[in-house]
Automatic annotation (TrEMBL):
<protein>
    <submittedName>
        <fullName>Sarcosine oxidase subunit gamma</fullName>
    </submittedName>
</protein>
<dbReference type="InterPro" id="IPR007375">
    <property type="entry name" value="SoxG"/>
</dbReference>
<dbReference type="Pfam" id="PF04268">
    <property type="entry name" value="SoxG"/>
</dbReference>
<dbReference type="InterPro" id="IPR027266">
    <property type="entry name" value="TrmE/GcvT-like"/>
</dbReference>
Length: 205
């Protein structure tokens, strides 16, 4: 009798420690994994008919300005290069998103690849999220420089990540990291978060 493999996220072993760190920081910092998000890599000519087909299928345009992102309908399109994007959606889209895009593009010259298994996504949220990430990232993460609608391929604690600010009403970031580096980055975040144990939710003066 065939056995059914149990799906396990790259950070399943630290979920309880993330929750404990979040409680210890008094609501000022939240760490969590957002496992199994759908991630589809798209490469095409942004001025060609394939780009129009993708826009119509997604219901949002592919961003053309470097290091920007567009959102809509539960999806996010992240700029990775002049002809490359990462489309991120909920886990429920994994079985359909890539095939929908491929069908919409048809015979036009383009590449659509489901890369959901390559990365997992961390949520680093709360009013201290920027302070925490600044310990290991050289980008200026202030909302004036790196707010909603932005994204960046960068390094966090020497691990390559894609960093995406959340919207204005939800302070914090998505951190997309290769599955092979997920455990390392989780340990780094937990260690860095220990500095904020006992913090209260009220803003600093």
């Amino acid at each position: 009798m065939a056995e059914t493999a149990t799906r396990r996220s790259p950070m399943a072993h630290v979920h309880a420690r993330f929750a404990a760190a979040t409680r210890s920081c008094g609501g000022a910092l939240r760490l969590a994994e957002l496992p199994y998000l759908t991630q589809v890599n798209v490469r095409l000519d942004p001025k060609g008919p394939a780009a129009d087909a993708v826009r119509l299928e997604l219901g949002l345009p592919l961003p053309l300005e470097p290091n920007t992102a567009t959102r809509g309908g539960g999806l996010a399109a992240l700029w990775l290069g002049p002809d490359e994007w990462l489309v991120v959606g909920p886990p429920t889209a994994r079985d359909t998103l890539a095939s929908r895009l491929s069908e919409a593009i048809g015979d036009e010259h383009a590449s659509v690849v489901d890369v959901s298994a390559q990365r997992t996504t961390l949520l680093v949220a709360g009013r201290l999220a920027t302070d925490l990430l600044a310990h290991g990232c050289s980008l200026d993460l202030h909302p004036r420089s790196f707010g909603a609608g932005r994204c960046a391929q960068t390094t966090l604690a020497r691990a390559q990540v894609v960093l995406v600010p959340r919207d204005e009403t939800k302070p914090g970031f998505w951190v997309l990291v290769r599955s092979s580096f997920a455990g390392y980055l989780a340990e780094w975040l937990l260690d860095a978060a220990s500095e904020y144990v006992g913090e209260h939710s009220a803003p600093r003066t």
